[in-house]
Structure formats: structure tokens, C-alpha cells
Design a protein that fits this description.
- The chain has 251 residues and is α+β, with helices and mostly antiparallel strands.
- The chain is elongated, with a radius of gyration of 22 Å.
- Helices cover 30% and strands 31% of the residues.
- A six-stranded antiparallel β-sheet has the order 4-5-6-9-8-7.
């Protein structure tokens, strides 16, 4: 019923200006978003509902939705639906912050789901990143962070148990690894490497991504004094996040 009302409102917003039909559909949708009739994170009518309500072809609707998604007005989640996008949130690039606090500052609700929390033996590449011997024990966690129930970050983290011996006993649905690690091994130094990549099937599924949608990834290492505490990959859907860094010069 709700989606039918939205589609009906959209039909009323269609203009008669001479323009390709898909452009008129796009402008009608943008009008609904800018006037507040369609709110951020609100699910819009399906392609079939739009075809029936507007009396245009499915190809026309599909093109309009694809272009609006690439332009940042809509967010399409495979198997879930199409939603009104919010202005992209910023992820801090040159500082280390608690994602729960970032989300709260935007007036939104943070939640998380723990996919893995375990100990394992470090293989050679990971051991090199920690500057330890292969075969030594590390802790590993994989957590999906949500903003208003929308997945916005996949946190894949390895932790030095010498610095955080009780890591596996924490409930990371009630507080973030950042909060715990800040208490037991406060950050004294860190490094970031930022890159774009195409996620694998697992990453695409947990972040509810469309096929071939790219992601942003921060590879992060943190130190407490002279010892490396964590090696982490923070993966963000490219359509939902931008990276922001601020710096000052002297002189």
C-alpha cells in the first residue's frame, strides 16, 4: 500500500516538458527526494510497480534507476530493493575513530553483527605485518557495522594477544573493538593504505552490494609504543562512503 502511494505521488510529479521519457522519470524521482516526499533510507516502489503506475517500459524504468544510482540519488541493494540514498557519509582517513561515534554524530543508530571471533596461527604474510614469527597465535574478528540497519563497514581485524589478551571474551555487539583496544592498548602510532577494489562474493553478500559495485578499503596498522597491536582491513561500499582527510601546514 505504501509503495503504491509513493508511485502515485511520482506519477503526479511527471512533467510534460519535451524530453526523453527516462529523463522525465529521473526528474520526477529527484523531485520527490528534494521535496522530502521520499526520505533517505526509504524503500521506493519496485520496477514492476513503477512500470504499472507510470505506463512506461521496464527498460525505461531500469535506465532511470541505474543512472540515479550512479549519480548518488538512489541505493540499490541486491535482493532487498532500491532505497533513497543519503548524502555520502565520510570515513576519517588520516585519523582513527570509533565508527559507532561517527554514526551517532550523524544522528543515526549504530549496530553490529559478529561474523568471526577466533584465534589462529599467523601465516608468513600476516606474521610479517606484525613483525612476529610465522605460527604465532593471533586473534581475529570480522564484524559488520550498520547505520540505521544498512551495512556500511566490514571490519576484518587481526589483534596481537600480547597487547589485548581478553579480546576473544568481549561482546562486540555492545561495544566496538576500537573502544576495547583504546582501553587496553592506547594508540600511539598508526598507518593507513587506501585503495579501491571489487569485493568477493562474501564481502558483497554481507554488505548487500550490487554485482560489480566497487568498495573502498583502508588497510590499517596500529601501534602501542613499539609493538604492533592490530592489522585491519576496513571495507566500505563505494556508493555509501567517501574518505575525508584534513591536514595543516606550518610556516
Amino acid at each position: 500500500m505504501v509503495t503504491q502511494q509513493r508511485a502515485s505521488q511520482l506519477a503526479g510529479a511527471m512533467s510534460d516538458i519535451p524530453a526523453p521519457i527516462y529523463q522525465r522519470v529521473k526528474q520526477a524521482i529527484i523531485s520527490q527526494i528534494r521535496t522530502g516526499a521520499w526520505q533517505p533510507h526509504q524503500r521506493i516502489p519496485s520496477e514492476s510497480e513503477l512500470v504499472n503506475e507510470l505506463g512506461v517500459s521496464r527498460m525505461t524504468i531500469n535506465r532511470a534507476l541505474r543512472e540515479l544510482t550512479s549519480e548518488g540519488f538512489l541505493l540499490r541493494m541486491q535482493g532487498v530493493g532500491t532505497f533513497v540514498a543519503e548524502i555520502k557519509a565520510y570515513a576519517a582517513m588520516l585519523e582513527v575513530r570509533n565508527i559507532a561515534e561517527e554514526i551517532a554524530e550523524r544522528g543515526h543508530r549504530h549496530s553490529s553483527r559478529v561474523l568471526a571471533l577466533q584465534s589462529l596461527k599467523a601465516e608468513s604474510e600476516l606474521a610479517e605485518q606484525f613483525d612476529i614469527s610465522p605460527g604465532q597465535t593471533l586473534f581475529h574478528s570480522q564484524i559488520v557495522h550498520y547505520e540505521n540497519d544498512l551495512p556500511v563497514q566490514l571490519e576484518d581485524r587481526y589483534v596481537n594477544p600480547v597487547e589485548a589478551p581478553d579480546y576473544l571474551q568481549q561482546d562486540f555487539t555492545t561495544r566496538t573493538p576500537y573502544t576495547y583496544l583504546s582501553q587496553v592498548a592506547p594508540l600511539t602510532a598508526g598507518e593507513h593504505i587506501v585503495e579501491a577494489f571489487i569485493p568477493d562474493d562474501h564481502q558483497r553478500q554481507v554488505l548487500a552490494l550490487d554485482p560489480q559495485e566497487p568498495c573502498l578499503m583502508i588497510r590499517r596498522r596500529t601501534w602501542h609504543d613499539a609493538r604492533i597491536v592490530t592489522v585491519a582491513r576496513l571495507i566500505y561500499p563505494g556508493s555509501r562512503y567517501r574518505l575525508l582527510g584534513r591536514f595543516k601546514t606550518h610556516g
